[in-house]
Structure formats: C-alpha cells, structure tokens
C-alpha cells in the first residue's frame, strides 16, 4: 500500500465513480457488478429462507416441549458467537471454495436469531385466546395454523428483519475465501487501491439490506392488518 | 396536618386534573380520597410529596408550604405506598425496607434491625427479609410496601390504591392490618381508592371527588352515608346506604334477654316459640322450638360492644327465631337480642 | 487433523512476534481496546437517552444501519482513505460497529424498567442520580450485559477480518495461511479464533451470573428456595 488515498483524493478531486460503474456494470464476464449482485442475492437469500424453514419446526417443537428449548437455544447461542471467517475456513475442507461454504454458517446464524423469535412469538399468544380456540373445538393443527401462527407473525418477522439485514452484510466476508458476492469489490479495491469499488459495494449492500427490510415491513402489514388497526385507534 | 389551599393542577394541554381543591387532612387521622377514575384523586395525593407540582394554590405540611422543600428531602419524610408495591427486585426484602433509613444516613446495622422489626409489625415472618420480592405473593409484597413506607417513622403516609391489586380476602386482611397499625402509630394518612366500601371502612374522613377534580363532599363515613351532599355522591355511594350506615352504630346499649336459654338436653315445655340450646360449657348449640320438636336450627352471633348494629342485624336474620345471639370474648352466650330489642335500637339509630 | 498437529506441534508457532502467544495477546488487546472505547461512548449515551426518554429514534436507526454496514467494506474504506501508518484506520470501524449493540440494549434496558419502580424510587426520596444508579442500572443490568456480550462477539469477529487490512491478531494465521496455501495455519488459526470466541462468551456468561442480582435474574440459592413456598 502506498500513500493514503485521502491525500490523493484531495489532490486529484473525486474519483470518476460513474464512469467506473458504467464500465464494470455488465462486462459479460465473471466479476461484473451485475454478476456479483446476483451472487450476493443468492448467498444471502438462501440462508434467510432456509433459516426460516428450519427454525419454524424447531421453534414449534421447542414451544411444545419446553425441555427442548434450553439446550437447543444454548447450542445456537454458542454457534452465534463464532466469527464467520474461521467457520468458513474450517468448512472449506468439507464443501470446498463454493457458495455453500458461505451459505451454511449464515443459515446457522439465521436459526440462532429466528429460533427464540418463533418461541417468543408463540409465547405471545395470550392464554385466554388459546383456551377459547380449544373451547370452540379447533383441532391442534387448525389452532396452530389459524390462531397461534398468525398471532406469532409480528415477533417472527421482527427476527426475520434482523436476519435479513445481517445476512446481506455478512455475505461480504466470504470475499476472503473468494465467495463474497459484492464483497469481492472490497478485496478488489484493497489489492488495487481504488475507491469506487468500495463505495459501490457498501452502497449496494446497504441498499439491498434496506430493500429487504422494507419488503419485510410491507409483508408484516399485509399479514397482520390488525396490528396497524390497533395502533391507529 | 396537611392543608390543601385552593390547589389546582392544569396540564399543558389545558386538562384540569384538580380544580380549586381546599381541604385538611388532620394529624393522626386517615383521610380518604375517593372517586371515579379521572377525578384527580391520585394527582392530589402526588402533589403532597411533589411527585407532581401544583399549578396554583398551596399545599402545607404542618404549616410549611411543600413547594419550599427540596423534593428528595420532602419525600424522605413522607411514607409512600403504591399499587404494585414497587419493591426493588434486585434487593432483598430487608434492604428494600431499609431504603429510606439508609438514605437518611443511618448505619447499616441499625437500619436492618429496624427493617426486621417492621416486617414483624406488618405481620410478616422476619425470615422473609432474606428473600427477594419475586418470591413473595402479592399480599406479602404489599405488606412489605407498607413496612418500607414506615421504616424511617415518617409522621405522614401517602397510600395510592395500595390494596387494589390483591384479591378480596387478602384485601380485607390488609385493611384490618392497616387499622390495627394505625391504632398503634397514629400517623397522618392520606389514602386514595376508587372503592367506596374501602373508603368507608378505613376513613376517619372521606373526601369524595368528582370527575374534573372538584370536591363533592368531605365528611366522616357515617355522615356521608346518612347525608350525601348531592345526587353524584348519593349515586357513588350506591345501594344499601341505610344498612351500611348501621356499621357505625354501636351495640353497647342493646337490651339482652338471658331467660331464653335452655340446656342442650331440652325436651319441650317453654311458652316461648323459640329457645336457644346451650352446651354445658356455655356455647350456643342452636334454636329449638318451645314445644321441644325438631332438630336445633342455625343461629347467628355478634359481640356486643365490639360488633356494629349491622352485624347484630345480620346475626338475627340468619336464625329462624329472628333473634341475634350475643357472645362474649370467650365464645360463651351472654344473652339474646330479640326482635323487639333490635327494633328499639334501630329506632334510636334512625333518630340519632 | 494432521493440520492441527502440524500447526500446534510446530515450536516455531509458539514464539516470536508472529507466534501464537503474541497473536493471541494482540487479538485480546485490539478487541478489548475497541470494546472499551465503544463502552465509553455507548453506555453513558444509552443511560442518558433511556433515563430522559429523548433521542430514542436515533438509537434505533443507528442500530439498524450498523447491522446493514458490511464490516469488510468499512475496514477497506477506512484503510484506503487513511492509510496504514497507524492502527487508527482499523480501530475506528471496529469501535463504530461495537457501539450500536451496547447503545441499543442499554437504552432499551433502562427504558423498559417498570414505571411503578421508578415512581416508588422517586417517591421515597431518591435523587435522579440515585434512581439511575441504585435502581435503574441494577434492574436493567441483564440487558446492558447482553449488549456488551453481543458487542464483544462482533468485535472478536471484526478483529479477525481486520487482519486482512494489516491488523495483527489471530486472523493473521488464517488470512496469511490462506494466501500462501498453508492449510495447517488456516485450520489451526481458525480453531484458535473459535476457542477465543467461546472463551469470551464464557466470560460474559460468568459476568452475568456474578453481577446480576438473583432477585432480577430470579436465580436464587437452594437454601432460600427450600424455605420459599412461592419460588418458581
């Protein structure tokens, strides 16, 4: 690394950001911004969806058999504390230098956040509501699908928002094993000191996170119209 | 003595919580603020220890305006009990009770032994001092709340709906406990409740407030029941005012007959329609017909001089004879109050 | 597994400025420094905002934004802008990312204290500072410590990544090993980092157990449970 870019920036004026984007957006080759954006979406969406799909049954089981919750949550708590980079590295010997190596740990982090959310969400169903559903003759399955899960939605979605935003930003660490989606822009910028890729990478990742967050807020409004009605009244 | 002198509380949005309130809470008495929600009773109470400051008027504590006293200093000299007790969850019961003494700079040993003594005083096992609040029931927590308020022996106690979150049986025992304590301690107590029965039971004086924070009536409970100032107070007092008033009429003067009792083995031959069978050790067994037929029928008892006319009347209504059985402290029959005797006493009560 | 014995069995890995003890100490130093700086900013700010109730929106927004910021991008950005003459360009993003978890949880912890409790405390004549120090902080302590723990997890992970931009610490074994295809170093370093992270987690769990009042955590010694009828 040579002199800090800040001083060069001050001497030369702002870098030709737009020109760089236009040149690298769609080169038709691996590593174009468009290509990395696609990779990034895949590597962050798969853990979000897989995390939810796995956390739901785990959470349901933990809510039903309370003794299961402490040990399961304990294990995921420990997993959550593990830094992503060494976990990627250790996984390489199993899954190689592939997207899967990034996707698996992110899925585990997602479960670690979503499992308590599902359990707390189901716990937020007031007892009198559950009792009256039983009294009206709901079968356990119908009660779950029609009463308990809808009431749990706000808490689960709050957890999902955390998962979505952090997964999207965490993918970029994968760049250190060559699988980072937009994170590849950071390593590229560092190896060949140049600002535009870093700025584009950060902005695109934050934008992706905000869009995902916004979509989940929208989903919550559509899925739980009563929450907003209550707030408005 | 606590004096409200034309006190008004107006909030920034123009809502008036308390409107030109003037009254006195005399030293050594329980003054109850009662009224529907929105009547400003809690606001009035909280203005005494400056949890809220009055907009207009003055509140005097033994002649000194509370506005002139620094709030923490003022509050350390006033016991404060609130609905959920507000115990500090991170401190043991004994340390909760010792809070104010420690704030006042007592040494630790003295504060703790004072706390232990108070726990006993409010009817708790001092061993509970080593527990944490979550390990106590609601009623026990409320007793600790009272002990904590009394810890530094403040002359004034403010109680904001302290018993409204516990079940009716516990509430009754907490009320009795408060009256017992007050008989020993003679504090100046201001008590807020929305429950008129609680107000009548506990208050030496009851201030009925109406929505908008205006005083509707200030009177002792008996006067309140017999002479409500207006329709609002009458409606707020609810049904059975006449019957409820009887709880302030004593039974000392009640004429008792002692010729209506018979031994348990009685087999007929009395000119009276009903006679009271009494066991060998003098306790009531039941009402028998004068001709000796049938099994002993149920009876009701009262303690003359201690129980009210309401209890005596209640005892009379529980038995087929229409008479109330007077029993002494030892549970032995002291005599029988007949319908005629009760009639005389009621007529007297109606006059007086 | 032979990678592990290669790495840990090599005496050269146990001495010198790039040996395990030195790297471990560096990792600890950088993590502790970043966490301490973050605490210095976030705890007073969280207490203030939670106690006064003003500025809560800023806290929530900053927390969401911090989650969205890619750590690697931030590290590279600061290093490119400020150079590598000092560790400052690396420490800044480390601290920035460590602040939000502490800030949010301190704020939420203080704000979430039962208003009745606050009321009782003022009513007994505690001053504002006493209410904060003697009541609000002890009751909010579980959440404050949770914030510290989440922040520490974040810092340990970010310090690892920061090895890419030239910072020392255990991340060096992994990053350098990966660059030179020295897989014994990669695997050994990864295991070391994992163990380090677990140790940090353990420290905070122990801290939680020793500093939070049993009345708040509802964890009470056996002796008292035995005599208590209403314990849960």
Automatic annotation (TrEMBL), chain A:
It is a multi-pass membrane protein. InterPro entries: ABC_transp_perm/SBD (IPR051204), MetI-like (IPR000515), MetI-like_sf (IPR035906). It comes from the Bacteria. Its main location: membrane. GO terms for biological process: glycine betaine transport; transmembrane transport. Keywords: Membrane, Transmembrane, Transmembrane helix, Transport. This is ABC transporter permease. One of its GO terms (cellular component) is plasma membrane. Residues 37-216 form the ABC transmembrane type-1 domain.
From TrEMBL, chain B:
Keywords: ATP-binding, Nucleotide-binding, Transport. GO terms for molecular function: ABC-type quaternary ammonium compound transporting activity; ATP binding; ATP hydrolysis activity. It holds the Pfam family ABC_tran. Signal peptide: none annotated. InterPro entries: AAA+_ATPase (IPR003593), ABC_transporter-like_ATP-bd (IPR003439), ABC_transporter-like_CS (IPR017871), P-loop_NTPase (IPR027417). Gene3D superfamilies: P-loop containing nucleotide triphosphate hydrolases (3.40.50.300). Residues 2-237 form the ABC transporter domain. It comes from the Bacteria. It is an enzyme of class 7 (translocase). Its EC number is 7.6.2.9. Belongs to the ABC transporter superfamily. This is ABC-type quaternary amine transporter. The lineage of its organism: Bacteria, Bacillati, Actinomycetota, Actinomycetes, Streptosporangiales.
From TrEMBL, chain C:
It comes from the Bacteria. The chain crosses the membrane at residues 30-50, 71-99, 131-148, 155-175, 187-207. Residues 24-204 form the ABC transmembrane type-1 domain. Pfam families: BPD_transp_1. It is a multi-pass membrane protein. Keywords: Membrane, Transmembrane, Transmembrane helix, Transport. InterPro entries: ABC_transp_perm/SBD, MetI-like, MetI-like_sf. Its main location: membrane. The keyword Transcription regulation does not apply. SUPFAM superfamilies: MetI-like. One of its GO terms (biological process) is glycine betaine transport. Belongs to the binding-protein-dependent transport system permease family. PANTHER family: GLYCINE BETAINE/L-PROLINE TRANSPORT SYSTEM PERMEASE PROTEIN PROW, POSSIBLE OSMOPROTECTANT (GLYCINE BETAINE_CARNITINE_CHOLINE_L-PROLINE) TRANSPORT INTEGRAL MEMBRANE PROTEIN ABC TRANSPORTER PROZ. This is ABC transporter permease subunit.
